[in-house]
Specification:
about 160 residues; four-stranded antiparallel beta sheet; alpha+beta; 4 helices; elongated; Bacterial Protein-export protein SecB
Amino acid sequence: MTDAQTPSEDLPQLQVNMQYIKDLSFEIPGAPHSFIEMQGKNPEIPIHVDVNVGNVGANAYEVVLHLKIEALLDGKALFILELAYAGVFTLNLPEEQIHPVLLIECPRLLFPFARNIVADMTRDGGLPPLLLQPLDFVELYRARAAEMNAQQGQA
């Protein structure tokens, strides 16, 4: 370490400490009849995404990626999958960079693992594996920021 460096410069800026399934639920409410009803049909599959962050220690944060997927056919649920996939991250960054990294980069790192869990759960549930397309966490961050600004403007 040179005189110009500080100890924090030697530390990784972003460290993944652990990843885990915080909550997982999968159900096929109409089975076995729903398997017959969906033959040759393409259900509507809306995907709801949310990211929550909590501080768990000095520079350590839990980031939880929430996915709720409900396959619908003629207004009836074929399957419902809810996943909360979390990671604990240590950040050694300037204060102004922490919030965007927690809500953009950390969920981007978690997403491939959550995507794999979704594919495995649907396949193991007797359905074709649902392969989620990549998510744009930058756009989600911008939408969330715009929503918060609108709420603050109304207050």
